[in-house]
Amino acid sequence: MTADPAPWSLTRSVVRTTVGPVVVHARPGPRPLLLLHGVAGSWTTWTPLLRAAHGFTGRGLVLVDLPGWGSSPAPAQPLEVDDAVAVLRSVLDALAVGTVDVVGHSMGAFIGMHLAVAAPGRTRSVTLVSGTTFAAVDAARHPVRGVLTLPSFALLRAGLAVTRSAAVPMLRGLARIGLLRLLAAPVFTHVGALDRSVLDAFVAELRPAGFLGAARTGAAYDTDRWRGIDCPVTAIAGRDDVFARVRDLDDLARVVPQTRTVLLDDCGHFAHVEHPAAVLRALGDDAVSGTAAASRTPAAGAAPRRSS
Questions:
Q1: pLDDT bracket for residue 199 (50, 70, 90)
Q2: Reported pTM
Q3: Which one of 33, 82, 156, 303 has the lowest number of neighbouring Cβ atoms within 10 Å?
Q4: Which residue has the higher pLDDT, 67 or 186?
Q5: How far apart (Å, rounded) are the C-alpha atoms in residues 145 and 91?
Q6: Is the Cβ–Cβ distance between 116 and 123 less than 8 Å?
Q7: Going by C-beta distance under 8 Å and a sequence separation of 6 or more, which residues neighbour residue 71?
Q8: Which SS3 state, helix, strand or coil, does residue 128 take?
Q9: Residue range 157-182: average pLDDT?
């Protein structure tokens, strides 16, 4: 990962919204992509995918640090999903961007789905990368049951609820004594192979209050609202994702019948970080607009086998 926007000709700006200033990195161009990070993330989360895609040459890019994450200050009140959509509308308006293809990771995928519900005229397509959907919503609603159905999510939520702001110094301490990879192991399938910059970003970007707020928002959300989505949807998931379940893909396809699903073997919750080439193939330049099927041919090297 890198925090340098120069390789992709991204310009940093600050957009004033109803919940406060939001930091945006953007590049003008046709058929713009809106990239939305997840928890413990910022715009930099997408740099492995940008590198694999050679910056999506010829396309516009909009990468947002959502309120309370990355360099965007936390709002005065916890952010609801409708507030997040209002923020994105303000960002797109400020950049004079009309319609976008949305690619969201984890919480960002959740927000991207609601953008397609609440602002269908702004959304050409939605791609979920390791999206938190039905299993995470159920675990957030029923914490005790969540310990059995989605234990890593439930235990992380409980741990952050207890430690709160002390969690980040604790993680930094673990990093200093070399135990951070052990703690991050449930989230990444091959944590030992990760570049140190990924783990450093994981610590730097963790926001306990933001995570707990996102869980509360998810618990209150009615996923039946997704039945109103009429744009193309692609859902990319890792078989080893501890914040989701493989059956979430089938459940999503039942609620949104036009969904195309891609399951990546040997992959955890950060598919675009662990296997950016495989995610890029699943997207494809045309697939982002929902007009092409994903290639089933694995790239050379460490890319995982996948099924769809």
A1: confident
A2: 0.85
A3: 82
A4: 67
A5: 38
A6: yes
A7: 23, 42, 65
A8: strand
A9: 63
